[in-house]
Write a structure and sequence with these properties.
37% strand; alpha+beta; YxcD family protein; globular; Uncharacterised_YxcD
Amino acid sequence: MRLSMDEIINAVCLNIAERKGIKPTEVTVQLAWEEDTGFTAEVWSLGRSQYLIESNLYEAILRYMFSEYNARVFRDQVELILNDEEEEIQAIIRD
């Protein structure tokens, strides 16, 4: 299974909203990849911004897979990739 960048953003929005007790629509996310830091996200909510590291993104994806697809996925089954053809970050979920 492959999650698009939009689904990863939704996963982060849902995760942050649940943690902060706000609506997912009150969260804005921008994903990034840099050679030095790997995959990161800048998140804006409640008038503040915060940076998430790769492990935070994996956590959000695992929770998203369970809540949206009712699939119990573990960290070693998920790989974040930079898809140059589609110019987006994607997550590959392996069985």
